[in-house]
Amino acid sequence: PSAHTVCRTLRASSPDTLGEILRLATAAFAIAITFMMIMTIVGNILVIIAVLTSRSLKGAQNLFLVSLAAADILVATLIIPFSLANELQGYWAFSSIWCEIYLALDVLFCTSSIVHLCAIALDRYLSISRPVSYGAKRTPSSIKAAIIVVWLISAVISFPPLLTLDKSEGGEETCELNNERWYILYSTIGSFFAPCVIMILVYVRIYQIAKQHTRCPPGKKQKAVAGRNANVAASEAVPKLSEHAAPAQKSSSAIPQSDSQILSAVPNKEYKNTMATSSGTKLVSEGTPPIQGTPVSRRKAMVNREKRFTFVLAVVMGVFVICWFPFFFSYSLQAVCPETCRIPDPLFKFFFWIGYCNSCLNPVIYTIFNKDFRKAFKRILCRDTKGTFF
């Protein structure tokens, strides 16, 4: 056949070929999003079980991760399926009431995720900058109260503007956020940019404190404090010794004042322990615990674990910003310069779905970067019960 005939045949078949490609692309997209939903639900359920059952992850601060995982599970169950149906059908096939609820929950869960990350950053900062005073206040009750405050702040940011949304009536409805300039600026600043700036500033401060600790390790500080405490204990012991020795001096002035005889003259109820120092043997009251190497090593291990976990959470925050920044930046451009900065619709939708992908990434990050989570996930998934693996 001639070249003209071949070209005519290709042109005739091209619509069918394009249609087939579009159908395959749509099917692949639906399968990928469905897989993402399943991974989000399963992965975050594992995170919740790991924190609640693993001894190494039972710190009160990890309740923030439980709440964050719950928000991601809600995104995967209440938001993504309806977003996928809306994308595949090209219109909103559900009621207008559910559209309002869906939009409100969508903004709420996204806002709560970044506010959770802000709260986690502040918790890290306080635990590093004020380890003693904040450590005493860092109880499960206080963390739960902070989580409630996080959800309330998210609701305050998310819900009020949604009350002004326009509702479509009849026919094939569209379910979209308000495109008015004030709403776009309010939602992007309140739900993303302001919390993001707070997170970055807090983590810069955490980095500065960690750098100071690297220059002067905590172990050296503890030794210096321990030395000062020992001197204070010894100086406090002197007046008490003189009080006990005074009656003996009245009865007999020939009693020598050497360390060994003072030890025998002191009642055993108050001074049962002695401590060897560079200047000799010192008395230590019963309430003063002897200095040992084990608590110091435990403290160092705890500090190292806090540093590693701070790094993991920094990665979580970085990934969150990378996933959601393109969407919020392009969405804010619609308010700043709607005519000149218009982004192609396919690219905007791509940014939209990349943001949702963040919900399934946190369990992956925990697995890659944190040994405690790896052990907990392995124990949950590979539990051996009477010789059978589940």
UniProtKB/TrEMBL annotation:
The keyword Disulfide bond applies. GO terms for molecular function: alpha2-adrenergic receptor activity; epinephrine binding; serotonin binding. It is found in: Cell membrane. Keywords: Behavior, Cell membrane, Disulfide bond, G-protein coupled receptor, Membrane, Receptor, Transducer, Transmembrane, Transmembrane helix. SUPFAM superfamilies: Family A G protein-coupled receptor-like. The chain crosses the membrane at residues 24-51, 63-82, 102-122, 143-163, 183-204, 309-330, 350-369. One of its GO terms (cellular component) is plasma membrane. It comes from the Eukaryota. Pfam families: 7tm_1 (PF00001). InterPro entries: ADR_fam, ADRA2B_rcpt, GPCR_Rhodpsn, GPCR_Rhodpsn_7TM. It is a multi-pass membrane protein. One of its GO terms (biological process) is adenylate cyclase-inhibiting adrenergic receptor signaling pathway. Residues 43-366 form the G-protein coupled receptors family 1 profile domain. Belongs to the G-protein coupled receptor 1 family. This is Alpha-2B adrenergic receptor. It comes from Seriola lalandi dorsalis.
